[in-house]
Write a structure and sequence with these properties.
- Its EC number is 7.1.1.-.
- Keywords: 4Fe-4S, Flavoprotein, FMN, Iron, Iron-sulfur, Metal-binding, NAD, Oxidoreductase, Quinone, Translocase.
- It catalyses: a quinone + NADH + 5 H(+)(in) = a quinol + NAD(+) + 4 H(+)(out).
- This protein has 16 helices and 8 strands.
- Helix 14 runs antiparallel to helix 15 and helix 15 packs antiparallel against helix 16.
- The two termini are about 40 Å apart.
- About 40% of the residues lie in helices and about 10% in strands.
- The radius of gyration is 23 Å and the shape is globular.
- The longest helix is centred in the C-terminal third of the chain and has 21 residues.
- The chain folds into 3 domains: about 220 residues, 3-Layer(aba) Sandwich (Rossmann fold), CATH 3.40.50.11540; about 90 residues, Ubiquitin-like (UB roll) (Roll); about 90 residues, de novo design (two linked rop proteins) (Up-down Bundle).
- By secondary structure, it is α/β, with parallel strands linked by helices.
- The strands form 2 sheets. The protein has a 4-stranded parallel sheet with strand order 3-2-1-4, with helices on both faces. Strands 6-5-8-7 form a 4-stranded mixed sheet, with helices on one face.
Amino acid sequence: MTLTSFGPANRIKRSAETHPLTWRLRDDGEAVWLDEYQAKNGYAAARKAFADMAQDDIVQTVKDSGLKGRGGAGFPTGVKWGLMPKDESINIRYLLCNADEMEPNTWKDRMLMEQLPHLLIEGMLISARALKTYRGYIFLRGEYTTAAKHLNRAVEEAKAAGLLGKNILGSGFDFELFVHTGAGRYICGEETALINSLEGRRANPRSKPPFPAAVGVWGKPTCVNNVETLCNVPAIIADGVDWYKSLAREGSEDMGTKLMGFSGKVKNPGLWELPFGVTGRELFEDYAGGMRDGYTLKCWQPGGAGTGFLLPEHLDAQMYAGGIAKVGTRMGTGLAMAVDDSVNMVSLLRNMEEFFSRESCGFCTPCRDGLPWSVKLLRAIENGEGQAGDIETLLGLVGFLGPGKTFCAHAPGAVEPLGSAIKYFRHEFEAGIAPTSAVVPPLARPIVVGA
């Protein structure tokens, strides 16, 4: 895994002034351990937060910065922090890092944890100070074995240096941090399913309210933030709100920088730290280098498998939540995938929906039964055995599994690419309808779950 430097053809060097997340990265891709991290101004922000800032001032600074969650939902981080109770008598609170990076085509958090583990620890330490949490957990995707090894080593280094544990930096503040590896479920990316899994329960989302800030891990106030989100905190504290906001491009409503990437049959697949507001075309052409010779861009997803497909003409959209919303989908994780002209969209969607169907927790009926239904129909269309009305049935499922129709956001994310694929490439779906098939009314075709 590599991270390409911040500029076309690697000509622009990363710096602390422009690349708060990645300027400390080593050119050889090896992890930055404590001595090197501190030599690169590591933990200076934590020392400032502990020595010079009241806890509420840290929360207000993060709120003023405009930092939003980097896991895909984009909820304002400072607002989320502000939901934690003010009652000083509640002395047991938790900070959870959502490191269960299961979104297909997304590996940004993995890079940060493997190569800059102390950046995450510093971000969690400052956040814990602000939120008055005495214990933290990094809930890590089980397959990230290298990240687990590096994080555990970094935690031990921080403990030995007095940066974790009792009386941190002589402040009287205690914070313990643990790395917890999950069992490998996509649904654990939803914060309450993550909490259930951490408690040893089945990874089902919880009903909200109450929200985790009121009733979280073991019934105590809990804040859950994404890896990349927490890694932004040290730079905001160290260099200030105005500087952080200045990093984004004009027109962007999201502040700071974002780890963005492109995969697929592009010339230079990779991951880059870029200011919010760059266009998809810059990301695709200047950084990813465009399509490999012999391939043509057919469509692309802007931020993981749960975002809708866009056409080449949408590449001029700015890469921030509102900019991507203007062309009909979501920013998601910001790691795009290029689909080339050799790919059949029915086969691609069948593969995606098989994944989402398998990863459903099974709690609510629309998701539990609707996603396998979509897989069955897509498999038939892929094999040229579709029946008249199947496309309308798929579109009906897109509506029935949309936002507000299911217990959590798993199903809406699963069907968003399906709806967009039919919208832009309906002829490929129509090609799989058997010419002699009888007309079947929408949503009337039977399904055998598991067939």
